């Protein structure tokens, strides 16, 4: 036993000795001399914010000595506000170069003293200006594109801007601009928001403005989800000429009309609860236009003498109107003058509140009135002029379902109000429409 113990001890000692004798790898040290002069490793302020602070800009890019402007941007580039700007000169900022981007960074340009002037103006040669994220208040014009011989700056962008308390124009854009999420309130004078020819207006809103129009759209404009609410204007809440309107709304305005459309296309637009103190008024006024899926309801008038054109849902001429709804208006649901195609609309409960109205009232010639449903109006379909075609309509519970003067063409008017109404439970039933004439109009 003692021998084995000594043997094991010797083996362990031999192993330890072997390990201690293993060669150690040694690496040579590198060059300890620095490769050059020390250099900064942090980013500079210019690298962090590679734009020009307008209020601390170099004279080479921004003029501050002009007697009429606080700042004139003279070079293309990207600029921003670093604080609110209280304007004491005639104007605030002029963008006098093409290719300028100006970020208000949530700050406001407002009038600190004096009156009038422009918050931001853009001369006709300052194309591709981009303004965003801030507010302008208290000027004659908040943001205005200046013209020379009716020529304006092109291809500008206005994004997330708010304009208020201006006495001439809130926003007046140039040609082919994009206005996205711009709003204007409590402006007077001309227009709260005006899109120049060829401009696109997305999600823009005008409220509590006075003056001429709340939103004005020039030729070739496209308006999507734009809103005019509670404005008191001399003309229209939304005024559009040769434009396209999608999902726009004009409601609770005091105006001649909620929406005026001349040579326009309107899809899924609404004009509800608009009014006028006296005279004629309509939720929608349309000439040479196409309307589909629109709604004009609860429009009223303070005219002391009830008449069909005071508080009408729509007044139209030379237009195509399909799949629209006109309900509970003070005057007519639809007043149709000349050369229109009126098809598959629903007109219900018009002539309300002591008003006088028809579901559909034709006052001119060369109109085709087809496939509409009118109910609960003083007069259902009222044709007051010669030379029209009336087919395939249905009328119910109007005081007078059909009132048609002579020299018109119409399908047979079939009274089925007393036709039996037996229930159907099965695969077949006899017709209860009492005619096979495909052009028939019905009172049911």
Major β-sheet annotation: 23 strands, parallel
How many E strands?
46
Q: Structural class, from secondary structure content? A: mainly beta
Distance from first to last alpha carbon: 123 Å
> DSSP strand (E) fraction?
35-45%
The shape, in one word, is: extended
Segments where pLDDT lies below 50 for 5+ residues? none
Q: Taking all residues together, what is the mean pLDDT?
A: 92
Give the helix tally: 2
Q: Which radius of gyration do the C-alpha atoms yield? A: 36 Å
Give helix % range: under 10%
How does the SSE layout of this entry go?
Blueprint: H1 2-20, H2 45-48, E1 52-53, E2 62-63, E3 69-73, E4 77-80, E5 85-87, E6 91-95, E7 100-103, E8 108-111, E9 118-122, E10 130-137, E11 141-145, E12 157-164, E13 169-172, E14 178-180, E15 183-185, E16 191-195, E17 200-202, E18 205-207, E19 213-217, E20 222-224, E21 227-229, E22 236-241, E23 244-246, E24 249-251, E25 257-262, E26 265-267, E27 270-272, E28 281-287, E29 290-292, E30 295-297, E31 310-317, E32 320-322, E33 325-327, E34 334-336, E35 341-343, E36 346-348, E37 358-362, E38 368-370, E39 373-375, E40 379-383, E41 389-391, E42 394-396, E43 400-404, E44 409-410, E45 413-415, E46 441-443
Parallel strand pairs: 1-4, 3-6, 4-7, 5-8, 6-9, 7-10, 8-10, 9-11, 10-12, 11-13, 12-14, 12-15, 13-16, 14-17, 15-18, 16-19, 17-20, 18-21, 19-22, 20-23, 21-24, 22-25, 23-26, 24-27, 25-28, 26-29, 28-31, 29-32, 30-33, 31-34, 32-35, 33-36, 34-37, 35-38, 36-39, 37-40, 38-41, 39-42, 40-43, 41-44, ...
Antiparallel strand pairs: 2-3
């Amino acid at each position: 036993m003692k021998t084995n113990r000594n043997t094991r001890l010797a083996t362990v000692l031999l192993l330890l000795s072997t390990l201690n004798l293993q060669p150690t790898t040694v690496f040579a040290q590198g060059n300890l001399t620095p490769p050059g002069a020390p250099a900064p490793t942090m980013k500079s302020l210019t690298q962090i914010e590679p734009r020009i602070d307008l209020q601390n800009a170099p004279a080479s890019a921004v003029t501050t000595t002009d007697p009429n402007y606080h700042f004139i941007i003279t070079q293309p580039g990207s600029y921003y506000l670093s604080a609110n700007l209280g304007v004491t000169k005639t104007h605030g900022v002029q963008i006098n170069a093409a290719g300028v981007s100006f970020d208000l960074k949530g700050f406001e340009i407002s009038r600190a003293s004096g009156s009038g002037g422009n918050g931001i103006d853009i001369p006709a040669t300052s194309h591709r200006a981009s303004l965003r994220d801030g507010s302008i208040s208290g000027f004659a014009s908040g943001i205005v594109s200046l013209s020379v011989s009716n020529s304006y700056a092109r291809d500008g962008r206005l994004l997330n801007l708010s304009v208020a308390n201006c006495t001439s124009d809130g926003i007046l854009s140039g040609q082919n601009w994009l206005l996205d999420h711009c709003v204007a309130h409590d402006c007077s004078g001309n227009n709260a928001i005006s899109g120049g020819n060829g401009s696109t207006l997305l999600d823009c809103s005008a409220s509590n403005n006075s003056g001429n129009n709340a939103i004005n759209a020039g030729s070739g404009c496209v308006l999507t989800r734009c809103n005019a609410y509670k404005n008191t204007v001399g003309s229209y809440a939304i005024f559009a000429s040769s434009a396209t309107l999608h999902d726009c709304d004009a409601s609770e305005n005091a105006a001649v009309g909620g929406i005026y459309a001349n040579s326009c296309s309107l899809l899924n637009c609404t004009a509800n609860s608009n009014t006028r103190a006296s005279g004629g008024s309509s939720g929608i006024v349309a000439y040479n236009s196409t309307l589909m899926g629109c709604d004009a309801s609860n429009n009223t008038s303070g005219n002391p003498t009830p008449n069909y054109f005071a508080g009408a849902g729509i007044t139209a001429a030379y237009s195509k109107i399909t799949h629209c709804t006109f309900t509970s208006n003070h005057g007519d649901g639809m007043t149709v003058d000349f050369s229109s195609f009126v098809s598959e609309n629903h007109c219900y409960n018009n002539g309300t509140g002591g008003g006088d109205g028809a579901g559909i009232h034709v006052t001119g010639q060369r109109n085709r009135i087809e496939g509409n449903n009118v109910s609960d109006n003083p007069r259902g379909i009222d044709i007051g002029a010669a030379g029209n075609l009336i087919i395939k309509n249905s009328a119910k519970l109007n005081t007078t379902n059909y009132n048609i003067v002579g020299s018109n063409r119409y399908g047979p008017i079939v009274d089925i109000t007393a036709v039996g109404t037996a229930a159907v439970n099965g695969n077949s039933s006899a017709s209860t429409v009492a005619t096979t004439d495909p052009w028939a109009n019905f009172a049911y």
